[in-house]
Amino acid sequence: MLIRTKENTFLVRFQDGRERSFIKGTTLLEIMDLDRPPESRTIVLAKVNNRIRSLHNRIDENCRIEWLTVRTMEGIRAYQQTLCLVLIKAVQELYPKHRLLIDHSLGKGLYCEFKNGRSTNRTMIRRIEKRMRQIIRNDEPIQPVEMTRTAFGEYLRKKAGELTGEERTHITVFRCGNATEYLGYPLFPSTGKLKAFGLRAWPPGMILRFSEETNFDRLSAFTKPKNLFRVFNETRKWENILHIESTAEINRAAEFGALSDLIKIAEGFHEKKIAAIADAITRRSRKLRVVLIAGPSSSGKTTFAKRLSIQLRVNGLVPLALSTDDYFMDNEKAPRDALGNPDFESIHTLDIPRFNADHLALKQGRNVHLPRFDFKTGKRIPGPHVQIGKDSPVLIEGLHALNESLTTLIPSKNKFKVYVSALTQLNISDSLRVSTSDVRLIRRLVRDSLFRNHSASFTLSTWQQVRAGEEKYIFPFQEEADVIFNSSLMYEPSILRGFVQPLLEKVPGNSPAYPEAQRMLEFLFFFKPVPSTEVLSNSILREFIGGSSFEY
Predict the structure, then answer these.
(1) Which alpha helices (DSSP H) does 118-180 contain, by range?
(2) Cis-peptide into 204, omega within 30 deg
(3) How is domain 9-69 classified at the CATH fold level?
(4) DSSP-assigned letters across all residues of 57-80
(5) Parallel/antiparallel/unpaired status of strands 143-148 and 170-176
(6) Is the torsion defined by CA of 358, 362, 364, 365 positive or negative?
(7) CA distances from 100 to 2, 64, 104, 131, 179 (A)
(8) HEC states along 488-519?
(9) 86: which residues sit within 8 A by CB, 6+ positions away?
(10) Which residues of the chain are modeled with pLDDT < 70?
(11) Which of 85, 391, 471, 501 maximizes the CB count within 10 A of its CB?
(12) What is the CATH number of domain 226-545?
């Protein structure tokens, strides 16, 4: 039995202020068992000196520990990634000749398929789900495995991925039985803490469904995102034609000077899709009064609206573009969120009566003095005077443009609805996707720094509130759109890394946003940084990095 001495012990200060000493080398899981916090049954991770750690981590020095339950943002992410490992293990055991691709988010889950082209069927899915439930009931241990940079690079190459730069000397992967995977986040200590989940057939693959974030014993509601899946599938087929399956191909294109062509092709694809949307609007122009353009934060709605306006003018129409952002109330008058800040995610932050009055006046052919919202001062200021012809379409873009409560005075037959989102279709490896929300977040980090005077700490700290607003006010309307435009650009993380990495590295170690900043940095290290000089002046990406040929 090891005798406690001053030299072989360390001191832990817990979140509630208590202090307790432990023998060096004690794991977080052992500390939790000895400390017995009241929420221990739901604890899945820990913050050690403000860094996210798996409960397997051994502690050797004085530190501050904050326990994280499955109901925290960090716990939810760990739950989802741990469930992915269980799925991978089940598939490897049952269908060892098939490569499983965890492809993209879809509804409240992840779309997965076999890479060899084999379609799943209900019998296969039932077998996989049954095996997953056995793994969870067995409470099988999940162990971290630390790899050198060289070993991890070889591991990724086998899985069609690639690590760039010299930032990391060691990387941690996780093993459950014979399944070893890098999933970009610390995982649960064992499978038994996983609760509700489900597998749903979605030809040619399946959807791994998650539990509700507020009730882990119950599956989240499922709505059929047919339009969204069609756009994801279209993008995947297009990238396959270009032989772009993962970040590795993007990095090689950057290394060998071929990225310039990929940038032009990606931008050409955008232009072709925007022109097709303009043609669809033109065919209905006699009945249309408004074109409504909505989507979540940092989707590039403003630039899309400007480029759509150009294509409509090519077709002989003279549109006017309005942004609902310009109808935000002054900050001091806006409704507040739970923290007392202006709730920009709520439709009630908009001056809806003023918006409708201005729109009605425009359609009557009157001269209207539009407002502009200054995000740096948080106030609405006078904008331009405009007047349009009776048959000119009005393009309305903003977070809430598809919400019927914004345009109740306009009949549905007179509306054309466009949903814009950055539906990223890249994977780092077969088991690790590039999250669509992460790409939008790095766009927002850059834009907020350059044009809204916000630090990375501020943007990161408000992102979960933004995401909650999207879930409530935006995503429910996406399937009602006449068309969905995918604003993602396969090359953009390589461009954005040079802008956002310095911002993330400035987040202080004691900031509440520090753990998320570190996670985003780890994600960015899979992309070779590329100068922005090749980005076209009318690109949607220019809305975030500057240098656009459009005025905003």
Answers:
(1) 122-137, 149-158
(2) yes
(3) Ubiquitin-like (UB roll) (3.10.20)
(4) -EE-S-EEEEEEETTSHHHHHHHH
(5) antiparallel
(6) positive
(7) 46, 39, 12, 16, 12
(8) CCCCHHHHHHHHHHHHHHCCCCCCCCHHHHHH
(9) 132, 135, 136, 176, 191, 194
(10) 1-6, 158-169
(11) 85
(12) 3.40.50.300
Cα separation, 481 vs 479, in Å, equals 5
* The pLDDT value given to residue 84: 97
The structural domains of the chain, with segments of one domain joined by +, span 9-69, 75-209, 226-545
Q: What integer pLDDT is reported at residue 450 of this predicted model?
A: 95
pLDDT score for 164: 67
What's the CA gap between 308 and 60, in Å, rounded?
A: 59
pLDDT value at residue 340: 77
CATH number attached to the domain at 75-209: 3.30.980.10
Identity (one letter) of the amino acid at 353? P
Q: What is the pLDDT of residue 109?
A: 93
Helices (H), 138-225: 149-158
Q: Tell me, what amino acid is at 98? A: H
Tell me how far apart the alpha carbons of residues 210 and 176 are, in angstroms, rounded to a whole number.
Answer: 20
pLDDT at 515: 96
- The pLDDT score that the predictor gives to residue 336 is 81
pLDDT of residue 166: 53
Which one-letter amino acid corresponds to residue 184?
A: G
Question: Which pLDDT does position 4 carry in this prediction?
Answer: 63
CB 220 within 8 A of CB 209: yes
pLDDT (tens digit, 9 = 90+) per residue, 434-490?
A: 999 999 999 999 999 999 889 999 999 999 989 988 888 899 899 999 999 999 999
Contacts (Cβ under 8 Å, ≥6 apart) of 244: 250, 262, 426, 490
The predicted pLDDT at position 549 comes to 95
Residue 162 burial class via C-beta count within 10 angstroms: exposed 0-12, middle 13-18, buried 19 and up: buried
Q: What are phi and psi of 545, to 5 degrees?
A: -105, -5
Cα–Cα dist 33/25, whole Å = 15
